[in-house]
Write a structure and sequence with these properties.
Elements (H helix, E strand, L loop, with lengths): L9 H11 L2 H8 L3 H15 L4 E4 L2 E4 L1 H27 L3 E7 L1 H8 L3 H7 L3 E6 L14 E4 L8 E9 L1 E6 L13 E4 L7 H9 L7 E3 L2 H9 L4 E5 H4 L4 E6 L5 E8 L6 H24 L1
Parallel strand pairs: 3-4, 3-5, 8-9, 8-10
Antiparallel strand pairs: 1-2, 5-12, 6-12, 7-10, 7-11
Helix pairs in contact: 1-2, 1-3, 1-4
């Protein structure tokens, strides 16, 4: 059989026919006409200089030479699929602006961000932790992780997890079960609208904690230093030298992934959204295993 120029794309046609055994089935799989598929098989055989199939009324059966080439064609198929996936991955580029709480940024997102940057080196992430001023509807951010359900604005959202709380103290101290004003680490009066601050005010009515802070990070630091008991998110206290003396299921807050509706189908925004969803799910599994 006289050889001609080899078209590597014809190996896909060869594999489809080898797997299906009939022109009709292979043509449907590849969304080609039967005549076109038949011509491409003949072209492939001519280019290789060998007969790949034995034609019969019942279908196409591989020759010994054709059977020997199947494994090589499958290797080419796997390589092309890997090439296509890599091309899609590296095609994700640009800047995504994320609004989230500081504790989620410092304890969950930043420690795992290298994974995202390794997969998509052309993707840039801006993290805004002052979520009280970040408004997705005004395009202050492209997406957000929030503990409050959006009630207005041009956004789409879904619940992806839960932020759980507990009472924590330094693991270096004897376990203390009684919370009182002398060992409580509370919130500054400017932050009394926060759920954790409200819980503490209800637990210690008409009392002022001995130490008050303005961030979760400083409360955690005070707790680690043995200065008292703090109401902390489990995700923040996990893997820190503090122990949970009591879980607070009544304080659990839903975590919402919020995306500006105009960007819902943006490849780079969806990439970050999938990354964040995976992190929240993994952190919840880790907490479940540790309890």
């Amino acid at each position: 059989m006289e050889s001609s120029a080899l078209n590597w794309d014809d190996s896909r046609v060869f594999l489809a026919l080898a797997r299906s055994g009939t022109l009709t089935a292979a043509a449907q799989q590849l969304e080609l006409g039967i005549a076109t598929l038949s011509r491409r098989i003949e072209r492939f055989e001519k280019a290789l200089g060998i007969a790949l199939f034995i034609r019969s009324q019942t279908g196409y059966e591989l020759t010994e030479e054709g059977l020997a080439l199947v494994a090589h064609a499958e290797q080419m198929e796997a390589a092309m699929l890997g090439f296509s996936k890599q091309a899609l991955d590296t095609a994700i580029s640009g800047t995504v602006r994320l609004a989230t709480a500081e504790n989620l940024a410092t304890q969950l997102i930043l420690p795992n961000l290298a994974q995202l940057r390794q997969q998509h080196p052309e993707l840039n992430l801006e993290i805004v932790t002052d979520i009280r001023t970040a408004n997705l509807h005004r395009h202050d951010a492209d997406l957000g992780l929030r503990m409050t359900r959006p009630t207005q604005g041009n956004v789409t959202f879904r619940r992806i997890g839960e932020l759980c709380y507990g009472l924590y103290q330094s693991s270096q101290l004897p376990e203390t079960l009684t919370l009182d004003p002398h060992n409580a680490i509370g919130w500054d009066h400017h932050y009394q609208d926060l759920p954790a601050a409200k819980w503490l005010s209800h637990a210690l009515p008409s009392a002022t904690p001995a130490l008050r802070c303005t961030s979760v990070a400083t409360q955690l630091a005070a707790c680690k230093a043995g200065l008292g008991i703090a109401v902390l998110p489990q995700i923040v206290a996990n893997n820190e030298p503090v122990r949970c003396v009591k879980t607070l299921p009544e304080l659990a807050q839903p975590i919402y992934l919020v995306i500006h509706s105009d960007l819902h189908h943006s490849k780079r925004v969806r990439c970050v959204a999938d990354f964040l969803t995976g992190l929240v799910e993994q952190s919840e599994l880790a907490l479940d295993r540790s309890t």
